[in-house]
Amino acid sequence: MELLFVYGTLKKGFYNHFYLEKSKYLGRAKTLNKYALYLKGFIPFVTKSPKVCQIKGELYLVDDKTLSEVDLLEGHPDEYFREKVPIVKEDGEVVEAWMYFYPQTKEPGILISTGEYTHKLLKH
Asked: What's the domain range around 74?
């Protein structure tokens, strides 16, 4: 079992959440470190720089099969890459969890300065 931090379309109420429906939801969480959250079209993604703010999302306990399925969705390691980073749970505990990053691009998209993706137009 692995910890997975999600910040976009895999969150509850969003159109890719069905990938995590059988996983254990551990609550809302945020990154310990600052990153940049962008939106391009309807797709959110995080880059390691610039360091804008903590990214807000949800923490899940997932099995290897689920992690592999999410890897396919995210195009890991070719489109997005996943890396373990420190995540702050709601109770303040810091844990290491997998998180997906997008490689830095010249025109990344619209910066979401709050660090929280809330767009639900494509919900199933």
From this structure: 2-111
Per the structure, the count of domains in the chain is 1
Q: Please check whether residue 65 is in contact with residue 12, taking contact to mean a CB–CB distance below 8 angstroms.
A: no
* pLDDT tens figures, 34-82: 999 999 888 899 999 999 999 999 999 999 999 999 999 999 999 999 9
Q: Specify the amino acid at residue 12.
A: K
Structure tokens at 98: 């997998």
Q: Is 74 among the residues known to form the active site? A: yes
pLDDT over 90, % of the chain: 83
From the candidates 58, 74, 79, 93, which is the catalytic residue? 74
Taking the model in full, what pTM does it have? 0.93
**Is there a domain that residue 39 lies in?**
yes
Question: Domain of 75: which CATH number?
Answer: 3.10.490.10
DSSP-assigned letter for residue 19: G
Task: Determine the pLDDT at residue 41.
Answer: 84
| φ/ψ (deg, to 5) at 37 | -105, 125
Give domain status of residue 19, yes or no. yes
In a domain, 124, yes or no: no
